[in-house]
Amino acid sequence: MSTGRREFLARSGKLLFLTGAAQVAFDAVLRGEPTSAPNYQTAEHWWGMTIDVEKCIGCGNCVRACKEENDVPREPYYFRTWVERYHVPEGDADSPQVDSPNGGYDGFPERYRPGDGSKSFFVPKLCNHCAHSPCVQVCPVGATFESPDGVVLVDKTYCLGCRYCVQACPYGCRFIDPRTRTVDKCSLCYHRITKGLTTACCEACPTDARVLGDLKNPKDPIHEFLRTHKVQVLKPQMATGSKTYYNGLDGSVR
Amino acid sequence: MDGSFGHKGHLVRVAALFAASLVAFFVLRALFVPAGFGLYGHYRAGAIEENRLRPVAFAGRAACVECHSDVPDAMKGGPHERVRCEACHGPLAAHAGDPAEKKAVRPDSRVLCARCHAASVARPARFPQIDVADHAGQEACTTCHAAHNPLAPPATSAGPAPPTPGPQGGGQKGGTR
């Protein structure tokens, strides 16, 4: 063993005093590039998203981008985000026809005709990153949680795969990954947003229908958007504290 | 006196059992509760870091523009000005990390353009939509439209940047290579 005393002290010191993020940062400092050290502070952020239904064109870019970015199984029925097409017959908001072929991954083949008095529109869906998530409350082992910066995350190494959270989510945002038998869901691209990038779906959205926002950053344009638009969250009666705000959401959307 | 504490062995045994189970509790707790659990809440604190440490697939527009600085100029003022590169060209973080590693493929315009611009009742009425077969027949969209600035015809070469638009696929990349 050729571990010198100096190296041994440095290593054991790191092991004793530095954990997780601090160790990554310290490694960057040791490499002589302290600027690449992550200086992300969870307490300084509170993430949310705005979705402008009136801008969504149903191209499915977000669905494809999400699957690419997050290694989501390509088969249908596994989605971290998906797009629904609503078709509401005239004057009958209670019984909309909703379809989402392959989650919108391959786009939406036209099946409605213009001028029949009905209205149609697209509604992108994803985890609403609730501040008071039902899914977090039911997890028996603490494998899913609201992070200090307001993102509902999954601890994949700790998840039992019991599916309680899948049933608890009022928005249907969770699925069991068939490869790991553990739960998976939108992480709001946590690996991206903590590096200063936007989410994959927002990056790929051609019309800016979905925009990531940091509600704790007073300079973030999300505040302007929320001020100047009449926004709504999904299922407000469930008091989930959803942070996904929809503009132009029709009353028929569930 | 003698009679009341004559059986203190019972008490010692109970106390020993209690102490042993206390030790067993802490040993088992240390064994089964992962490190960092409960630091921020009812979860493993390290899970936050694990969620962060995943590779990125989409590099983001800022990374693309570092090398392909001519493209934003070509898009300027056009309807696609705000569309980010990887919305059409796909995830290219591997290419941004090492340009030799992965090359961007030129998307098939008839598939790509139709994803957004094929007429659909559900699309917002003010969004530009066409019946693809009616509008272009079998022609590639890029024959008439420069993908980066579709309302300016590719053949005019308004600026110095757009290179030789060929008969097909001409203005598609508008000088990305």
Structural features, described:
- The complex is a heterodimer of chains A (254) and B (177).
- By secondary structure, chain A is an alpha+beta fold.
- Chain A has two domains: 5-39, no CATH class; 47-254, 2-Layer Sandwich (Alpha-Beta Plaits), CATH 3.30.70.20.
- Chain A is built from eight helices and eleven strands.
- In chain A, the strands form four sheets. Chain A has a four-stranded mixed sheet with strand order 9-1-11-10, covered by helices on one side. A three-stranded antiparallel sheet of chain A has the order 3-2-4, with helices on one face.
- In chain A, a hairpin with a 5-residue loop joins strand 5 (144-146) and strand 6 (152-154).
- The longest helix of chain A has 13 residues, at 5-17.
- Chain A is globular, with a radius of gyration of 21 Å.
- Chain A starts with a helix and ends in a 7-residue tail after the last strand.
- Chain B folds into two domains: 11-52, no CATH class; 61-156, no CATH class.
- The chains are: A alpha+beta (254), B mainly alpha (177).
- Chains A and B meet through helix 3, strand 2, strand 4, strand 5 and helix 6 of A and helix 2 and helix 5 of B.
Summarize this structure briefly.
The complex is a heterodimer of chains A (254) and B (177). By secondary structure, chain A is of the alpha+beta class.
